[in-house]
Amino acid sequence: MSGKSDKGDGMIDLIIDDRECRAPRGSTILEVCRAHGIDVPTLCYDERLAPYGGCRLCLVEVEGARGLLPACTTEAEEGMVVRTSTEQVESARRTSLELLVSDHPMACTGCSKSGNCELQRLAKRYGIEESRYKGEKHEYPVLRDNPFILRDYNKCILCARCIRICREVQGVGVYDFVNRGFAAVPGTPYDRPMVETPCEFCGQCISTCPTGALTARPFEERERVWKREMARSACAHFGVSLDEMMEALGVEGWKVRTTCPYCGCGCQLDLSVLDNRVVEVSSPVMVGPGQGNLCIKGRFGQDFIASSDRLTTPLIRRDGEFVEASWEEAIEHVTTRLREIRDRSGPDALAVLASARITNEENYMLQKFARAVLGTRNIDHCARLCHAPSVAGLAQTFGSGAMTNSIDDLEEADAVLIIGSNTTETHPIIALRLKKAVMEHDCKIIVADARRIRMCYFADKWLRQRPGTDVALINGMMNVIIEEGLFDREFIESRTEGFEDLKKAVAEYTPERAAEITGVDADLIREAARTFATAERAAIVYAMGITQHTTGTDNVIALADLAMLTGNIGREGTGVNPLRGQNNVQGACDMGALPNVFSGYQSVTDPEASRKFARAWGVESLPQQVGLTVTEMMDAALRGEVKGMYIVGENPMMSDPDIRHVEEALRSLDLLVVQDIFMTETARLADVVLPAASYAEKEGTFTNTDRRVQRVRKAVEPPGDARSDLRIIADIAEALGYSMPAREAEEVFREMASLTPSYAGITYERLDAGETIHWPCPEEGHPGTPILHKEKFTRGKGAFIPVEYKPPAEEPDDRYPLVMTTGRVLEQYHTGTMTRRVPGINEIDPANRVWISREDAEAMGISDGDLVRVSTRRGDIEAEARVTRKMPGGLIFIPFHYSESPANRLTVGRIDPVSKIPEFKVAAAAVSLVRKSAGGNGSGNGSGEGRPGGGE
Amino acid sequence: MAEKCACGQRFAPVDDLGPLEEILRRYRDEKGAIIPMLQDAQEAYGYLDEGIMREMARRSGYQLSQLYGVATFYTQFRLQPIGEYLIKVCHGTACHVAGAPLITDEVSNQLGIKEGQTTPDGKFTLESVMCVGACSLSPIMIVGEDTYGKLKPTSIRKILKGYYGEAAGSEVEDE
Q: What is the pTM of this model?
């Protein structure tokens, strides 16, 4: 049947339903049909999964073939003649459907999937109301054993999509078919409740389930469903989808596409809205970085929007107490006090903290407000605390500091060095791409992390370096690569400079010496170096484990050197990829919410740039000196040099190191204005608190970690008197006598783009049309730049910069014998203001826990679940112990999300001299037992191993 | 797989990981060896204990769900500890026609357990098996190492009672 070969362009021609179709060789018949708008019904098919051929609904007739063939698993061939809806085909489909329906409750009314059910739609299409096949029906109990996922196996059609997506996409494998024949269900081992399985509660299984067998519990709360119930009944009656029903009813704004407000992955969300409330969250399949996949925070963590804790009215502190105020009073109060301080002490006595959580437009507006309206040089935000070293280190070596490659092309890598990134928990969706690379083409992952993170289960090699010894490890790898001649000579000669210096410097770092410093076996360093250097495409992925050190910038430079040494820059599946922690931390930096640059990294000390912005903003001049960083602002406040602070959407009382120091600093201010959506720990210290709109209540854009600019769209009205940050800033600016003509998000974006070369070609129109644009995008017709440094580096030639190992600021001693490191967990986000207001998340992750190794716990007589005290030179906290073999001896780990036991009361205030980032990742600490757990033996529910990771 | 005597002491206790380690070593370099691994574990421990399965998953790199899926697909695997005597009621075609379902029902009634379960005193485990190859004696059941043929539901009570007395079992009971 194949006969003719393709025409050399990799395309084939075939005929489907008398239509001529062209498709890339290797496509399945189903893919060709979908690409040509030919409808073939399926139930077990999901674009995210490998074809399965289980449901037999996509059967088609192929001329010359024996019997009917499943379109989803049959490869299309040159010259094929396919028919998709002959009588024989339709009859076979009807029979399959009837067999499925014979054991499926067909009273769709009352089913939460009605209107979105694939079985319902097909049954309607084939006119099947009940089955001709009568037989035994299942009567399984409905399982509600966790806060998120409801399992009703009576509605299961055994398509295995949940099993496959959990295994193929999430890499976890909670489910498999349990039992066989009639008794088979996609169940958990030993019928355990979901919380006792490795389930990560991403809800991917819910997103792919074609029927109502798996549904999201939080979206079915009573107050959310009553109106949807009517619509669903109507869908059941008329056999139409919910979207069609809503359209027919003329309900507008029922589904709003926007960008997730959590980590830097930038997943696309569809928020379903009824009565000004987000009632359901989903993600469009094959769209955006997530391609329809989300994590627990994205899918289930949006309840904070409607939280009763939201700030709804401005508050002014009078006689020590907060008093509700009108916007006029609040603005009057703020502007009067700001003026006073500026007039008395000069504009540099004021400081502004912008936010990695708010939109690009708002960040742009804030730096304009700081520089043009207040006239202060002091503006910064918490990127200082995460990736300032990336910006500094990559700017020195490459000329620009951002992820060099896109999330999509990480999949193409043959080897990936993951260092200082707990990717599955902090960037779950990027982790999916890395897992896919492993599962699909055996990509070799090298994990370098002291903790046994979940990524280790997918890793080819795991290097367990001591915290703070990364430079020695990377130098050791480079030593091997140079010694063994595995470096990319051509790339080094044509694209870089300074190789000889590097060569000389790393010659000192033999694997043996690196092993001595890092604690990693010398041979393992050699093997890792070889794996990385010999891969066709090797990428580096890192996060805060690299940056949050006093040597943060050096760490980043060492990684950049490693990438250049092996020629892994400027191609797909390569690059140096700092994963940014917050939804818009990339954007906040791009917008110039930094003390040294305007938007687009145009230096404030560059007179030309300064003139350009001054002219555009209609002011005489702008501050031309570099301002204070977050950490320096706190010190300056304590010295009385900074007297007024304006903080938008940041919570330094949780996120900054050495909180006691921060508190003293903030309390010593004459004026503290905090603009936020919740009464945060920082807001409690404020003189004025202004209620802001959340991401779901405003328009704008976020720029995610791979420089992709994406739209944020308004889905609901803000609660009470809360207003968007954009409007609040504009109102205050105007009250200070500055005219802000551009007040709407799109206008602000246009103004920003006109002044920012890397954003110049981006418009709302292009984004709304569905374009994916990574900056730099210098002009309207430009497609954007997913891969940086393709032909040449931003700075021309890439600069090798040798760096030397320096020990961390604080090392363990007799009094503080352990090394403490801090970080994040999957379920929670940043300072917890949002995730800790989500009931389901609180149920599965109620409190902070101190991770401690089995050997240390045993030596100190501590069991899992005991209450312990952790102390450092700065202070102490109490929390439950989590005794786990994920930790090496001598190291403890504390997540920083929990205000009742804030890890940052313990961290060191010492900073990296270049980027000014504090050393969150290493402190000397001591642990002592406060109280044994009530359970006594510590073997209760809170098993220290928690829910084991995939493969465990 | 040759059936062994079901006496409890023949099996390693489930907190002894020695036999499991040996099994994992045996199949360390083999891909797709889930079935032999489970068979060996069952042989060593008498059944597929949850703790043993978790440990096997953790150390072999298979997901627990995969192991459990396979274990529940094949009837040869047991997930509950096996009693002192394993009762296998034949449900091959000949036995089925001769009333095997009634035999299973009666054993089940007498002992108060369902198929696959073990009596609380750890004496008996009830299973159904396919043809044991003695169709001329149908319906047949095997208790431990003793075979009983041409059974009637009414004969079950007496047979089982025999295992609580001094002498257990007899040769094929012929009426």
A: 0.91
E strands, A535-643, in order = 538-542, 575-578, 597-598, 602-603
Q: Mutual orientation of helices A725-735 and A360-368 as an angle, nearest 10°?
A: 20
Tell me how many degrees the CA angle A449-A451-A457 measures, rounded to the nearest 5: 85
**Residues contacting A387, CB < 8 A, separation 6+:** A401, A547, A578, A580, A581, A585, A589
Torsion angle (degrees, nearest 10) of CA A850, A852, A857, A862? 20
Q: For residue B175, name the pLDDT band (cuts at 50, 70, 90).
A: very low
Sorted by where each starts, the structural domains of chain B and their CATH numbers stand as: 3-73 (1.10.10), 85-164 (3.40.30.10)
Whether residues A411 and A377 fall in one domain:
no
pLDDT (average), residues A433-452: 96
Q: What percent of chain A has pLDDT over 70?
A: 97
Give the pLDDT confidence of A48-104 residue by residue, as tens digits: 999 999 999 999 999 999 999 999 999 999 999 999 999 999 999 999 999 999 989
Please list every residue in chain A whose beta carbon sits closer than 8 Å to the beta carbon of residue B63. Answer: 167, 172-173, 176, 198, 950-951
Q: Do the bridges between strand A876-883 and strand A818-823 make them parallel or antiparallel, or are there none, so unpaired?
A: unpaired
Say if A709 is an interface residue toward chain B (CB within 8 Å): no
Whether residue A952 and residue B72 make contact (CB cut-off 8 A), yes or no, is: no
- Least Cα separation, residue A197 to chain B (angstroms): 9
- The one-letter amino acid code at A658 reads D
Total domain count, chain A: 5
Contacts of B68-74 with CB under 8 Å at 24 or more apart are: B68/A176, B68/A178, B68/A189, B68/A190, B69/A176, B69/A177, B69/A178, B70/B34, B70/B35, B70/B38, B71/B38, B72/A178, B72/A179, B72/A180, B73/A177, B73/A179, B73/A180, B74/B35
Same domain, A605 and A743: yes
Range of the domain at A472: 388-578
Average pLDDT over residues A794-816: 94
Structure tokens at A659: 């909180």
Query: What gap in Å lies between CA B105 and CA A639, rounded to an integer?
Result: 87
What number of other Cβ atoms are within 10 A of residue A409's Cβ?
Answer: 20
Q: Is the ipTM of this complex over 0.95?
A: no
Confidence of residue A7 (pLDDT cuts 50, 70, 90): low
Domain end marker among A726, A753, A780: A753
Please check whether residue A261 lies inside any domain of the structure: no
Distance from the A256 Cα atom to the nearest Cα atom in chain B, whole angstroms? 37
